[in-house]
Amino acid sequence: MADVAAKAGVSRALVSIVFRDQPGASEETRQRVLRVADEIGYSPDSAARLLARGRSRTLGVMFTVHQIFHTDLIAGIYPEAERLGYDVLLSAAAEGRSEAKAVEALLSHRCEALILLASDAETPYLDELAHRTAAVSVGRRATGAPVDFVHSAEGRGVRQAMDHLVELGHRRIVHIDGGRGPGSAERRRAYRAAMRRHGLESEVRVIPGDHTEQSGIETGRLLLDERDRGQPLPTAVLAANDRSAMGLLMALTRVDVEVPRDLSVVGYDDSHLSHLMPIGLTTVRQDAVLLAEHAVRFAVERLENPELAPREAVLEPKLVVRASSGPPPEGAG
Q1: How confident is residue 12, by pLDDT bands cut at 50, 70 and 90?
Q2: The CA-based dihedral angle spanning residues 149, 150, 154, 156, taken in that order and rounded to the nearest 10 degrees
Q3: What is the rounded (10 degree) CA torsion for 131, 136, 137, 142?
Q4: What pTM did the predictor assign?
Q5: Cys-Cys with 190: which of 144, 158, 276, 285 at CB 3.0–4.6 Å?
Q6: Confidence (pLDDT) at 192
Q7: How many whole angstroms separate alpha carbon 210 and alpha carbon 182?
């Protein structure tokens, strides 16, 4: 600023007035200062100005590498944060880099609030975190911790998928479990409840898995091995998420199993991955944009009013029917 002031022939205080867009400088002086600043390549450090006032106006987002649905959420977080006058800083949890390390990196960069995408953190950690900063958990319930929670109604989404398969005529419906993944417990309970509701309790089968393609591939291998030993394939599989469904499709298409002629596959999330598969994936859509918007608004509102009681936003999922689901093979049921 001193260099701009010297070259423009004005005081440093006047340069500050111009860059803060405050009254006190003529239009001619204002334009001269801006022109000089452009010539010498100077631009005001807005982050430094905010920090000097004790604010960073930055939201930190902790996400997990390789979770495709997280990229959809992040794409929705940016525009809403910008609309409310906030920047976004990302920090990833990955193999060898814990969630706690990702969170501490965000806090060290003076993020004012945190949005945690499908955090694995236990309640005591989240409780401690909530006393350090404003925090919002997306996708995973933080039972007992004073953080805001945004998620889809997992049970209703699974019920839609199961009703769809049963209406097509399916009875032997298998569920690939999501392990400790976000929403997995709710989806597992809803699958079991739907099978009981349709009188199919004797057909209930939950195969251990997680939210990865490998989980679907291993399930496919298991089912094919069982078929080779004389056990019939299920007629439909409800996967933990789209990634697991994609792995299953990969395993099936390498052999002589045709989807959906021989076996129907349903995913969960409706991530952009579901549109890229060779076979359009029937899946339960979580509205990533709405989830992101609610999370950002919760974070900003808590910054403005830290005394708010913990809040929960539950959004409606919607079944999206594509080419991977159809009637069971004739006589299979």
Answers
A1: confident
A2: 110
A3: 40
A4: 0.81
A5: 158
A6: 98
A7: 10
